[in-house]
Amino acid sequence: MSDGRPVLVFDSGIGGLTVLREARVLMPERGFIYVADDAGFPYGGWDEEPLKQRIVTLMGDLLERYRPEAVIVACNTAFTLVGADLRAAFHGVPFIGTVPAIKPAAERTRSGLVSVLATPGTVRRAYTRDLIQSFASQCHVRLVGSENLARMAEAYIRGDAVADADILAEIAPCFVEKDGLKTDIVVLACTHYPFLANVFRRLAPWPVDWLDPAEAIARQARRLVPASDMEDHPEEFDRAVFTSGRPDFSTRRLMQGFGMRTV
Ligand code: DGL
Q1: Atom of ligand 1 nearest to the CA of 190
Q2: Whether residue 204 is found in the same domain as residue 247
Q3: Is the predicted pLDDT of residue 2 greater than 60, yes or no?
């Protein structure tokens, strides 16, 4: 049993909420601090070195300020780049990562045609290539790096209109036909994308399994975060922090819907 320190959930924007909502279900007794590095959003287009430095420095500040029990890095673009650096720099802090769900996709596919929909950063990572080589060498894996989908997901979840044609243009390369076989699994390798899953289903040229790893990440977090003996957590937990310092009204309202006060 422990003293009920909060769990910190980190992303470049509001995509990590797709992981937070699952973590909440499995860790109802815990408070959460949600950190969106919106001043750096989107991470997908950053060069690797400056992004690495930014995240390690920011994480150092956050750990000092909030002393979390564990950190869920709810961002593929960040974790595939700096997961190892974070663990090396901050010994003793459990980091739960988010990486493209290539292994489960390779285990589940029937056609052997799998697509990975991600940011351009995640698609470029050596980490992602290694996952394919280690777990999906028997499959035909198409990596689809989308420049615009994370922004579109943010707009959509805030209630702004996003044109179907624009979304379709981003997901269309995921659909591959080869030797009479078709893609049957698309890995959602950016935590923003599950917000658009219903739109993807409606627009898809044929039905596929859209793999969202959020629940698996939450389960891993539950394994690493001891059940707290506090019945309830302090008021000041369950808050959202934006590195820009000025989230707009629709963002604050969205966070409220997730039970998070914006500070
Ligand atoms: N949510 C982030 C991820 O899982 C990426 C969004 C961005 O480009 O910053 O990769």
Answers
A1: 4
A2: no
A3: no
Q: Which residue is it, tokens 């959460």?
A: 32
What is the phi/psi pair of residue 239, to 5°?
-135, 155
pLDDT digits (tens, 9 = 90+) for 143-191: 999 999 999 999 999 999 999 999 999 999 999 999 999 999 999 999 9
Residues with CB under 6 A from ligand 1: 11-13, 15, 41-44, 75-77, 119, 122, 150, 190-192
75 catalytic residue (yes or no): yes
Q: The domain containing residue 126 runs over which residues?
A: 102-212
**Residue 2 within a domain:** no
The H or E element spanning position 199 is helix 197-203
Beta bridge partners of 2: 228
CA 192 centroid distance within chain: 6
**Nearest Cα residue to 215 out of 96, 52, 41, 83:** 96
